[in-house]
Amino acid sequence: xxxxxxxxxxxxxxxxxxxxxxxxxxxxxxxxxxxxxxxxxxxxxxxxxxxxxxxxxxxxxxxxxxxxxxxxxxxxxxxxxxxxxxxxxxxxxxxxxxxxxxxxxxxxxxxxxxxxxxxxxxxxxxxxxxxxxxxxxxxxxxxxxxxxxxxxxxxxxxxxxxxxxxxxxxxxxxxxxxxxxxxxxxxxxxxxxxxxxxxxxxxxxxxxxxxxxxxxxxxxxxxxxxxxxxxxxxxxxxxxxxxxxxxxxxxxxxxxxxxxxxxxxxxxxxxxxxxxxxxxxxxxxxxxxxxxxxxxxxxxxxxxxxxxxxxxxxxxxxxxxxxxxxxxxxxxxxxxxxxxxxxxxxxxxxxxxxxxxxxxxxxxxxxxxxxxxxxxxxxxxxxxxxxxxxxxxxxxxxxxxxxxxxxxx
Length: 409
Known about the structure:
Helices cover 50% and strands 9% of the residues. It has helices spanning 10-16, 71-86, 91-103, 108-123, 127-137, 139-142, 152-165, 167-186, 200-203, 216-225, 234-246, 250-254, 287-300, 313-321, 323-326, 335-348, 353-360, 368-371, 377-395, and strands at 25-30, 33-37, 43-49, 59-66, 261-262, 267-270, 281-284. Strand 5 and strand 6 (267-270) form a beta hairpin.
């Protein structure tokens, strides 16, 4: 902001600082900025302004002391005060708020928790995983630092520490933190741009897109042995059955509560807080699976959860990665690969793509998401019935469709 010719200089201020004199001195720098020099040579910066016309009383705001606040810094603050005046704001109020923010800066932990509380809790299905990762990898190292002081190098130390164990996890946590800081910045809660110039390759690796689809023989064997208690515990037997039949995400089954299951209408409604898309997912329960769900209810209803307990996502994923070994299958697969296999096999059965997408819980594209609110329940139940029939054929159970028993020995 242009303010005309300045009257003060660093040389002039240095000559006045600490020099005793007989009376208080006031010198103007221009555009409302002044210094007050006491008898003992102490120099204070002040800004003089009026909220009304010249008939209103002048207000003098103390900005700071020289040399703690340099001439250049004082002029910057003066210009900021003039900007506040131009916006109809009282510089005294705005200056006090700014100083309070500077003296009590938002920490890294406070900023990330703000994002968790104000955004992730309502929009992220795996928020507990986010919280656990921040507690382990970020808070102990830079959580107490002022966000504005936490430069890129401090963030990189955290990500490098994670990268040694899991470069993909480092990239994932980086993305989460970058989104959190942008959210804080947009909401004017706190400002930090230290992660803006970084990308995933700078801190770790992107998660490699998988294309693994289980072969018919693998699916048939898994379906046949999913309830074999010598291979899998009751928890993982039930989890596998749900994942194979519905093609759902593992967290949807892992976090599923009995209140989601209507055993009269035979519908499973995944609430939006458990859905990655942020929308509820309604899936009909095929006839062949109903006895299995009833058995689960008998065993697990008191717990409140479909699977009886809630295991940590990391533990479930790790167990899933080793399941192929228990079946003596050569090529590794993950629990998420069951979901991809579900989608692929349903399309091969001739199920309409939009029905498959609905069963997967994907958001509908474009205007369909706005105008088409149909749940396609008849089409869904038909698709799932055909899918179980196909599984029975793959497992070698052609003659009769087996009624599954939960926890059957």
